[in-house]
Write a structure and sequence with these properties.
Shape of chain A: globular
CATH class of chain A: Alpha Beta
Distance between the termini of chain A: 76 Å
Structural class of chain A: alpha/beta
Radius of gyration of chain B: 24 Å
Largest sheet of chain B: none
CATH architecture of chain A: 3-Layer(aba) Sandwich
Number of helices of chain A: 12
Oligomer: heterodimer
CATH topology of chain A: Rossmann fold
Helix content of chain B: over 70%
Order of helices and strands of chain A: HEEEEEHHEHEHEEHHHHEEEHEHH
Number of domains of chain A: 1
Distance between the termini of chain B: 16 Å
Order of helices and strands of chain B: HHHHHHHHHHHHHHHHHHHH
Strand order of the largest sheet of chain A: 6-5-7-10-13
Number of strands of chain B: 0
Largest sheet of chain A: 5 strands, parallel
Chain lengths: 379, 525
């Protein structure tokens, strides 16, 4: 009886979401890698369905989004561009031909370069995981150019991963692995019934997103609270003296708001310092392996026609030492009320048009990269 | 602590096992209810508890005295001891405000002198003075915390208009949540005791639990002692049937609040926040959104309060009975915030003479009652005007005899159907116009909004789609409730139907609840 009731509840819930509140079906095929971070499940084939797109993902045997495996040894006369990023560069909600990597490879070839663009991106990655991926896995593919994506979510992703920390301004290793939920996910993915639910159940999709949202909100608040506590101890803030005049509710509310804003600002500043250090390290690692390094920004969408830069938070050292690809202005110039540069359902990633604008801005800089000069098909 | 917050869920989860442990011992249960209610209320600001305790202490003794029962020195000690205890406990959480003990002690001394002065008066005279004490203290608290700056500011404006330039101070006074509700409830008990409609008993524990009962402390229903007080003097049932129906009622109230009211409020806020320059369509959407919001916000709270109380075995009165189906303004007030309407009718309208003394006096009494009813909602002339507007339309309806025409018409006949449907439509429009006065920040804003309703611009589908998507299920459910005569529709039908409705309701609460925790509008009244 109890089992029947549970099944009936699940059925009602599934029907509810299919009829009343349709959900995007976006299962995640992610597992652990020998490098202590997450990676795409090798050889996985799966679909995403949103009100705007139906996309199939094909992962190669090396965990890269591609239809073929790449030999570790670079073909002679060919330049390799290794792209690291999160879901924006993995190409969530995009057909493989529309991803940043595919478009960039096509444009490079059209511009006379013999080039391969490899998609190392994994949904949910922050800069710390990209760095680890580059250092322990990506370097084996002998890239000539390394591209990292940068968006605002990386600020917190880096803290959340716990792989690195800043010790008196110096970047230190803090952990060897970051594999959130991978054990559970691996166990579940072994079972066909789970894959069936993950691929097709809108109720499951809703529940998973809701739980993930709550966890991330909790982590954000915890991060903010720790920053507020750090600020309190740093500034010697203590309880007001007994002789302080009584405060009314408005004053207390205003003080709370100011403290909250300061905690937020402090949190952002500390997170930005960590991100900047990670990017400088990635720049060094790329240069050490003889590759050029570029950072491509994913702009912050304010509205359909307004975008702001996500690079402003980074340190002056990053801005002077790292080759930055600014894209917010290009998106703002191209924006029209009837044009979607980001999807407006599903998970709100860049559309093919949005990605192509990023590719155009990246191409402008890649053309003059000294590492790319050796692979021009037509001098 | 808001019902729609996670901290309340933690609070109730901790409270319920303790309640079940001691529910069979009336005194222990009531002590627990007092502590829980004070924690619940003190969560906003522990200093507010002092006001609840003042009202409790005074009305415990005043009701006994007003009823003609002996107020023994032991009762005065109980009252004073309770007040001192609560004051000390609340100030322990607000150490910066220890000075508040001085006005409390001063007030106690003044009341002590007052009681000493009336102690030897004849019983009949003394009863009246006990009633005056209750009215003075409760209305005094209300006048100071809610209306002081309003009256002083209005007087300053008036004197300024007359050419004077008085230097009148403005105090920064916090309005404690729910003040108007619990003071009115306390007053009604003492008045009922005075008129022998209720017999108060000698237990400050029972009374304090009744006075501060957390499900209805901050926004009613404003209960009558005759209905609720006896429930605090006996063991209340804890049954599966009550738990299920109480939980369903709570869930329905939560749906009204966090799914409907909180989701349509941005549409209303956009118009009432900056009325000038809005299109006709946007203005109409804003007014309709507020009409839905204010109903779901307050009726939602009332349902949650009744549901919680029912789980604990207590019965609270119905506060809303499908007010937007009303066919006349009088009927609207019989269906909207019923506990306040009945309070105003019994203690103000009838005290002024009610329907006795001729038509003109009846109209006067109606206008005075509605004006003061408007003022009860907030210290602003727009609330007074809202009350006045409702008073005026009720007077006009009575003058034209519309109430009688509607009452005598039969819905089943073509003529009756036409009369009732047009009467309903006109009443709904009048109520919506009233809400403009209620919600607008200034009279100028209200005039702007009414003027913009005449514009034919901006009537696009997108303007109304969000509002309609949240209002449509409510309208369908209300029609079902009216047609079936079952207001508590979630406990209707066979098990599978009830279970399915509950599942869908819970899924909707999870999927469509508005972001963040929003206060209830009526907490400010």
């Amino acid at each position: 009886m109890a089992v029947a009731l549970v099944l009936y509840t699940v059925l009602i819930a599934e029907l509810y979401f299919r009829v009343i509140d349709p959900q995007a079906l976006m299962p995640r095929y992610v597992t652990g890698t020998p490098f202590g971070i997450r990676g795409n499940i090798p050889n996985a084939r799966y679909w995403n369905h949103t009100p705007e797109v139906d996309v199939q993902y094909r992962i190669n045997g090396q965990g890269l989004r591609a239809d073929r495996d790449y030999p570790l040894k670079k073909p002679s006369g060919t330049c390799r561009v290794a792209v690291f990023g999160d879901s924006f560069f993995f190409g969530i909600e995009l057909d493989v031909k529309q991803t940043f990597e595919s478009q960039l490879e096509r444009r490079l070839n059209e511009a006379g370069f013999r080039a391969e663009v490899l998609n190392f991106a994994v949904g949910g990655f922050g800069t710390a995981e990209m760095l680890q991926d580059l250092d322990r896995f990506g370097r084996q593919f002998q890239p000539d150019v390394v591209i990292f994506s940068w968006d605002d979510s990386d600020l917190l992703d880096n803290v959340r991963s716990g792989l690195y920390r800043l010790d008196d301004g110096h970047l230190e290793r803090a952990g060897t692995e970051y594999l959130p939920g991978v054990k559970v996910s691996d166990w579940l993915m072994q079972h066909a019934w789970y894959r069936l639910i993950a691929d097709h159940s809108e109720f499951y999709s809703f529940a998973r997103d809701k739980i993930e949202f709550l966890i991330k909100r909790h982590q954000r608040r915890a991060n903010k609270d720790s920053m507020a506590a750090a600020e309190g101890s740093a500034t010697g803030a203590a309880a007001p003296p007994a002789s302080a005049p009584p405060k009314d509710a408005d004053t207390e509310a205003a003080e709370d708001a100011i403290a909250n804003a300061r905690a937020n600002a402090l949190q952002r500043q500390r997170n930005a310092e960590l991100a900047s250090a990670l990017l400088l390290r990635a720049n060094d690692v790329a240069h050490d392996m003889g590759a050029d390094f570029y950072l491509v920004e994913i702009p912050w969408k304010v509205s359909r026609t307004e975008f702001t830069s996500s690079l402003d938070v980074l340190s002056d050292a990053v801005r002077s030492d790292v080759k930055l690809v600014h894209t917010a202005a290009a998106l703002s110039r191209a924006a029209r009320p009837d044009l979607e540069l980001y999807f407006e359902t599903g998970q709100g990633h860049l559309t093919p048009v949005g990605e192509s604008l990023l590719v155009t801005e990246t191409m402008q800089q890649l053309k003059s990269s000294p590492q790319m000069a050796g692979c021009r098909a037509t001098p | 602590m808001l019902f729609n917050s996670s901290i309340f869920a933690v609070f109730f989860a901790a409270f319920l096992p303790l309640y079940l442990l001691c529910r069979r011992n009336v005194t222990a249960r009531n002590l627990l209810l007092i502590v829980a209610s004070y924690v619940f209320y003190g969560w906003w600001d522990p200093r507010f508890l002092i006001l609840v305790a003042i009202s409790t202490a005074v009305d415990y003794a005043a009701a006994l005295g007003a009823a003609g029962k002996a107020v023994r020195p032991a009762d005065l000690v109980k009252s004073a001891g309770f007040l001192v205890l609560v004051t000390m406990a609340s100030l322990a959480f607000a150490m910066d405000d220890r000075w508040l003990f001085l006005p409390v002690a001063g007030g106690m001394a003044a009341i002590g002198l007052y009681i000493a002065a009336i102690w030897r008066l004849p019983s009949a005279t003394q009863r009246k003075y006990w009633l005056i004490l209750s009215l003075t203290v409760n209305l005094g608290i209300l006048a100071f915390f809610k209306y002081f700056n309003f009256f002083v500011g209005s007087a300053a404006t008036l004197l300024g208009n007359l050419g004077a330039n008085p230097n009148i101070p403005h105090f920064s006074i916090i309005l404690p949540v729910g003040l108007s509700f619990y003071t009115f409830q306390a007053i009604s008990r003492t008045i009922d005791s005075y008129y022998s409609r209720f017999e108060p008993r000698y237990s400050i524990v029972n009374y304090a639990a009744f006075h501060a009962f957390f499900p209805q402390l901050v926004a009613g229903p404003i209960e009558r002692a005759g209905h609720l007080m006896p429930q605090f003097e006996m063991v209340r049932p804890f049954e599966r049937r009550l738990c299920v129906s109480g939980s369903m009622l709570f869930a329905w109230g939560l749906y009204q609040k966090i799914v409907i009211a909180d989701n349509v409020s941005p549409i209303a806020d956009a118009v009432f926040g900056a009325p000038a320059g809005q299109t006709g369509g946007a203005t109409l959407a804003g007014v309709l959104a507020f009409t839905i919001q204010i109903y779901c916000d307050f009726a939602g709270y009332s349902n949650m309060a009744r549901g919680l109380a029912r789980v604990l075995g207590f019965d609270l009165m119905m506060n809303f009975n499908q007010p937007y189906f009303a066919r006349t303004p009088s009927e609207f007030w019989q269906r909207w915030h019923i506990s306040l309407s009945q309070w105003l009718r019994d203690y103000l309208y009838i005290s002024l003479g009610g329907n006795r003394g001729g038509r003109l006096k009846m109209y006067r009494n109606l206008m005075v009652t509605m004006l003061l009813g408007g003022l009860w909602h907030g210290a602003s002339w727009t609330f007074v005007a809202w009350g006045g507007f409702h008073g005026a339309i009720q007077v006009i309806y009575r003058m034209l005899g519309v109430d009688a025409i509607v009452k005598e018409s039969r819905f089943a006949s073509v003529r009756g159907f036409a009369i009732q449907m047009s009467a309903w439509f006109v009443t709904l429009i009048l109520v919506c116009i009233g809400w403009i006065l209620f919600r607008a920040h200034t009279f100028g804003d209200a005039v702007t909004i009414v003027a913009q309703l005449g514009s034919t611009t901006g009537y696009t589908a997108s303007q109304f789609s969000t509002l309609l998507s949240f209002a449509a299920p409510l309208i369908v459910i209300e029609i079902f409730q009216r047609a079936s005569g079952r207001l508590e529709f979630l406990t209707w039908g066979p098990f599978l139907v009830r279970y399915t409705m509950a599942t869908v309701l819970i899924l909707t609460l999870i999927a469509f609840s508005a972001r963040g925790t929003h206060e209830f509008i009526y907490f400010d009244f």
